[in-house]
């Protein structure tokens, strides 16, 4: 091959390489070019669904993206997370994860199909919230002490509902049982709404719930909050004591967080773009007020900060789950 021919071939290959290398960047700069699906791994009406729809609606309104919530509930949120982990890493399939299915699940489920650190990318932290222990207004239990005394008098006679086995909320109830040295019987439901309906109907004694799921019924006077499980009182319920304040474990602190994840391998410019837009939303007073209205606390993070939170919590909750003895086959 002559020198001229070699030079032509080399320059052509180089140009082709540059064109191929530039294609993803071009596609990413044009993202989003179609609607984005935000998987909600719980049924409609619960805390995750409420915050997911708030974020989706505000992104659609402010960023002019089309973000469509898609409820894929079941198995403590792990079905929806697994679907997101299997999705193509294009940025068009995101999921609203939380501590339940991203941190607790790996130590609770024997055959979980995804690794929350390896198979998903932390995109944007949205909010965190305490868990609240409530009873219906007509309940004989006026205080958490009433519950403890009744449970000590009749072990396993008192029941508590949760949105599902293996959720942080379920484990908050189990950890409370240990701290208070009582036996109360867990009744798992498929989502927050079903659990809510049964406690309002008097079919279960207590409801352990995320605050966003319960706040509307609390404000309506249909539920009586007995305690929150976080280290400090909630700004939404400043008059309600913490479990620790009431003397059941001085370090008692169980809360949950909510954040957006993408399949591993999603291009970093797309991840950074979603993170920036969500953080812009969280700086808006109307969004902050809406999150507070739901009983949650907004909290913006960088992608690195959020990824570190997930990784650290996965390690921390291994011991908590093992100590609780909870296990789902």
UniProtKB/TrEMBL annotation:
Presence of the UniProt keyword Cell membrane in the record: no
Bilayer-spanning residue ranges: none
Leader sequence segment: 1-27
Pfam families for this protein: TctC
Keywords for this protein: Receptor, Signal
Recorded superkingdom: Bacteria
Listed InterPro entries: BUG, Bug_dom1, TAT_signal
Similarity remark: Belongs to the UPF0065 (bug) family.
Protein name listed in UniProt: Tripartite-type tricarboxylate transporter receptor subunit TctC
The organism of origin for this protein: Pseudacidovorax intermedius
Organism placement in taxonomy: Bacteria, Pseudomonadati, Pseudomonadota, Betaproteobacteria, Burkholderiales
